Amino acid sequence: MICAKCREEIEAGEEMQWNGQTLCEDCYVIAVSPPKTCDVAAVQSAVMHRKLAGQSSTEGLTEIQKNIYHYVKENGRVTRPDIAKHLNLDEAELERNFAILRHCELLSATKEGDSIYIKVMN
């Protein structure tokens, strides 16, 4: 069986149903509870956790998160499609990781005209 979202194969018995689609567990979790970039409690929690752990900049991030951060930092401001294309990420993976970077107050998004740009905070 193939996941309707990520197109990966799903082992028998591991499939989930959501709105008439057959999904893998990862895609199901995202569908049911999509990442929220503007979550005040998540921001406070992430900032406090990083502070207590003595982390700054990209310390404690995954390689994907570091790559996203560095790409945005090197290019000033970029769109989500720019990041996804450059790092070969699907939309869901980019959103999950951007939400974490936003919660850590490393990246932010701003709308200019019809476009949304991602940029480094501060």
Order of helices and strands: EEHHHEHHEE
Strand arrangement across the biggest beta sheet: 3-5-4
Question: Helix/strand-derived class?
Answer: alpha+beta
Q: Strand content of the residues, in percent?
A: 15-25%
Overall helicity: 40-55%
Overall 3D form: globular
Question: What's the rounded overall pLDDT mean?
Answer: 90
Rg over CA atoms, rounded to whole Å, is: 16 Å
Terminal Cα separation, in Å? 46 Å
Main sheet, how many strands, which sense, barrel? 3 strands, antiparallel
Short description:
The chain is 45% helix and 16% strand. It has helices at residues 25-32, 40-52, 63-75, 80-87, 91-103; strands spanning 16-18, 21-23, 77-78, 107-112, 115-120.
Secondary structure elements and pairings:
Blueprint: E1 16-18, E2 21-23, H1 25-32, H2 40-52, H3 63-75, E3 77-78, H4 80-87, H5 91-103, E4 107-112, E5 115-120
Provide an overview of this structure:
With 122 residues, the chain is α+β, with helices and mostly antiparallel strands. It is built from five helices and five strands; from the N terminus they run ββαααβααββ. The protein has helices at 25-32, 40-52, 63-75, 80-87, 91-103; strands at 16-18, 21-23, 77-78, 107-112, 115-120. The strands form two sheets. A three-stranded antiparallel beta sheet has the order 3-5-4. β1 (16-18) and β2 form a beta hairpin. α3 (63-75) crosses α5. The radius of gyration is 16 Å and the shape is globular.
Sum up the structure in keywords.
122 residues; alpha+beta; three-stranded antiparallel β-sheet; two-stranded antiparallel ribbon; 5 helices; 45% helix; globular
